[in-house]
Amino acid sequence: MSNIGKQRIIIPKNVKVDCIAWILYAKGPYGEASIRLPIHTKITHNNRYLVLSGDNINSALYGSLQRKLKSLLYGLSFLYVAHLKLVGVGYRASLENKTIVLRLGFSHDVKVLIPDILKVSVSKRTNFKIIGSNLEELHQFAYKLRSYRVPEPFKGKGVVFHGEIIRRKEGKKKKT
């Protein structure tokens, strides 16, 4: 078993956990979630901790499973936030019902349906944040939005995460 998989997972005070067969159910103030565990995985839990154990057959899974369970339980008691920024002349974002409309310099607007478990808010037409309790879904949606206009290295235009550093390249030089 991996060393990360051996660590105990602390259950937040406002989250209730129940394990039936190989399905772990969790309920917190920001929603409910369930996760199917690999066969031969044993979970022991009390009111404060979860501990993974099992055969050596799937010992490679324990580290990633431990991190996934930890982020799931944390998300049910606190919310995850991703800040994105549009960099470029004329780049804008707006909300229409359950869709986010991005103007990214194309001949058409990019309309993306927002998943039900996430909330998106737009400020200053170029900054927006995504809020959700599921870290995996949040990152998947954020990278989907980023994939429509990945930041380019010459001017840095595109959809950029807050705090992301874009390596800039030097442009062409004239011969003198």
List the helices and strands and how they pair.
Layout: H1 3-6, E1 9-10, E2 16-20, E3 23-28, E4 31-36, E5 41-45, E6 49-54, H2 62-77, E7 80-87, E8 92-96, E9 99-103, E10 110-113, E11 118-123, E12 127-132, H3 135-147, E13 158-161
Antiparallel strand pairs: 1-6, 2-3, 3-4, 5-6, 7-12, 7-13, 8-9, 9-10, 11-12
SS-based structural class? alpha+beta
Helix content: 10-25%
| Count of extended strands | 13
Radius of gyration: 21 Å
What fold name goes in the CATH topology slot of the largest domain? Outer Surface Protein A, domain 3
Low-confidence stretches: none
Distance between the termini: 64 Å
**What order do the SSEs take from the amino end to the carboxyl end, as H and E?**
HEEEEEEHEEEEEEHE
Q: Tell me the domain tally.
A: 2
How would you sum up the global shape? elongated
Describe this structure in a few short sentences:
By secondary structure, the protein is an alpha+beta fold.
Structure overview:
This protein is of the alpha+beta class. It has two domains: 75 residues, Ribosomal protein L6 (Outer Surface Protein A, domain 3, Alpha-Beta Complex), CATH 3.90.930; 82 residues, Alpha-Beta Complex (Outer Surface Protein A, domain 3). The protein contains three helices and 13 strands. A hairpin with a 6-residue loop joins β9 and β10. The chain starts with a helix and ends in a 15-residue tail after the last strand.
Essential attributes:
single chain, 2 domains, Outer Surface Protein A, domain 3, four-stranded antiparallel sheet, elongated, alpha+beta, three-stranded antiparallel sheet, about 180 residues
